[in-house]
Structures are given as C-alpha cells and as structure tokens.
C-alpha cells in the first residue's frame, strides 16, 4: 500500500478528515471511523485508560488498529510518553462525549434491516466455517490476544464496508508494538475467494450474533478490488 506521509497530519489523517467526523481516505481506500460517533468508535463510553492503551498497544478490548491506523500506532503513538497518551485520550473522550452524535441510541437502531436472500446467507455461513472460523471462532468471539472478535465489533458494523473488504482481500497485520511485539496476521483471500463469496461472508458477519448491518454486495467488493490494481 502506498504511503503519502506528506499529506498527513500528526494523527496520520489526511487534511480532509481532520475534523474527527470520519470519512473515506482517498487513495488509501480505507474508511476512518468517526471519533465522535458512539456507533463507529464509541470513545465516549470507554475509559481514558482504555483509549490510551489502544494508542500504545494497537488494540484493546474494543478495537484493533488495522490498515493506515496500524501504521500510525506502530510508527508514532506507541512511542509517545504515557502522559501525552493520557492527555490525548482525555481530549478524545471529552470531545466524543460532547458531540451531538453521541445521543444514546440503541446501537444498531439506524441500520438497515437485512433483506438478504437465504442463499447468500447460507453461502456466507459455509465460507465462514471453511476459511474464518479457525481463527475468529464459531460464535465470532475470536481469541483474546491473537484474533479479534467479530461479534459485537463496531468495525464489522460500519455502514461503509471498505475496511472489511480490504481486510479480506489483502489480509493484514495489526501494529507491532512493544506491548504486542509479534501480532498474529490475517491471510489474504484475493486469489481464493471471488467477489460474490467475499460479499456473502461479510454479509454473514453483518447479520450474525445479533448484528443487523446492511449486506455487502459483490459490486462493492469488485470496486475495491479494481481500485487496487491502478
Ligand atoms: C489465521 C487466522 C485468521 C483467519 C483464517 C482469518 N482471520 Fe480475520 N483477522 C485475523 C487477524 C490476526 C486480524 C487482525 C488483522 C489486522 O488488524 O490487520 C483479523 C481481522 C479481521 C477483520 C477486521 C476486524 C477489525 O476489528 O477490524 C475482519 C472483518 C476479519 N478478520 C474477517 C475475516 C474473515 C471474513 C475471514 C475468512 C474469510 C477471516 N477473517 C479469516 C486472523 C484471521
């Protein structure tokens, strides 16, 4: 993945997304979740210590930094002194708490009810069992310290499925940090699964374990696959 450091600020964000409201990062094709949204990052409900730990370790019990955010943690925030991490975490939590977006809604309230066909769902379940379950586990609970839980994971439920498609196509490594020096990786499926299969397995994740997020379509997968070749 190409890096465009000159255009990033100290958060690794592009100027277009430094208002904390989140957005699709151009060129990189990763979605930066909103830092003020309860649904997307949920910072208002997390402790300052937990947010600071995320920036130091690259993951906590709520989320895992991947893609461009893993680079930010690995190359930048993990090296910050604890006092800076605490200051920034306090600021982020405060901002998220004050934000109007934090209106305490039921977590999945605004998400579309799935109208996905039974065929797609059973195909997704089969692919999950064959390719994903060994790491992420039958109930999506993951393995603490090794493989992230997919059940009740905000990253799985983001309206914009870009990061999910990126992860399944290209695999990935969380940030390597002092607290997590040799993170376990995820294999790429770009050669193994076609657009329909990736859409089906992601739709499976988004409709299992009480999730009610919108389905991912083969066209969405295809667009992201096509972009990378450019
Ligand atoms: C060998 C173990 C392994 C297998 C098999 C595997 N994954 Fe993963 N998965 C991981 C690891 C490790 C991460 C964290 C990667 C990162 O942060 O970049 C991850 C991350 C993810 C994420 C992002 C989670 C988040 O919080 O951002 C999703 C979604 C995902 N995997 C889905 C799948 C699907 C779908 C399959 C099957 C097609 C699969 N995984 C197969 C190990 C695995």
Named CATH architecture of the largest domain: Orthogonal Bundle
The Rg value, from CA coordinates, equals: 17 Å
Strand content: under 5%
Q: What sequence of helices (H) and strands (E) makes up the elements?
A: EEHHHHHHHH
For the record, give the distance between the C-alpha atoms at the N and C termini, rounded to a whole number: 11 Å
Strand order of the largest sheet: 1-2
Shape: globular
* Low-pLDDT residue intervals, each spanning 5 or more residues: 1-9, 104-113
Small-molecule components bound: heme C
User: The CATH topology of the largest domain is what?
Assistant: Cytochrome Bc1 Complex, Chain D, domain 2
Q: How helical, in percent, are the residues?
A: 25-40%
What is the fourth-level CATH superfamily of the largest domain?
Cytochrome c-like domain
Mean pLDDT: 85
Strand-pairing-aware structural class: mainly alpha
Tally of individual domains: 2
Structural commentary:
This protein is an all-alpha fold. It has 2 domains: 5-102; 118-228, Cytochrome c-like domain (Cytochrome Bc1 Complex, Chain D, domain 2). The protein has 8 helices and 2 strands; from the N terminus they run E-E-H-H-H-H-H-H-H-H. The chain has helices at 48-57, 68-75, 82-98, 118-136, 154-157, 162-170, 195-207, 218-228, and strands at residues 23-25, 30-32. A two-stranded antiparallel ribbon has the order 1-2. Helix 1 packs across helix 3, helix 4 packs across helix 7 (195-207) and helix 7 (195-207) packs across helix 8. It is globular and about 50 Å long. Mean pLDDT is 85; it is low at 1-9 and 104-113.
């Amino acid at each position: 993945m190409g890096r465009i450091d000159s255009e990033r600020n100290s958060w690794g964000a592009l100027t277009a997304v430094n208002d904390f409201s989140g957005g699709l990062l151009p060129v990189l094709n990763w979605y930066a979740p909103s830092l003020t949204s309860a649904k997307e990052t949920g910072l208002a409900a997390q402790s300052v210590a937990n947010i600071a730990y995320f920036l130091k370790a690259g993951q906590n019990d709520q989320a895992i930094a991947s893609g461009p955010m893993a680079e930010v943690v690995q190359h930048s925030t993990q090296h910050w002194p604890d006092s800076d991490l605490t200051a920034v975490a306090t600021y982020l939590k405060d901002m998220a708490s004050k934000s109007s977006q934090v209106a305490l809604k039921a977590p999945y309230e605004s998400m579309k009810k799935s109208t996905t066909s039974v065929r797609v769902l059973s195909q997704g379940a089969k692919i999950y069992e064959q390719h994903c379950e060994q790491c992420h586990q039958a109930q999506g609970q993951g393995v603490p310290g090794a493989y992230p839980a997919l059940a009740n994971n905000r990253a799985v439920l983001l309206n914009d499925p870009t990061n999910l498609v990126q992860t399944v196509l290209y695999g990935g490594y969380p940030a390597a940090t002092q607290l997590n020096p040799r993170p376990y990786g995820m294999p790429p499926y770009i050669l193994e699964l076609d657009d329909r299969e990736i859409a089906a397995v992601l739709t499976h994740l988004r409709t299992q374990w009480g999730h009610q997020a919108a389905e991912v379509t083969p066209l969405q997968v295809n667009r992201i696959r096509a972009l990378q070749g450019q």
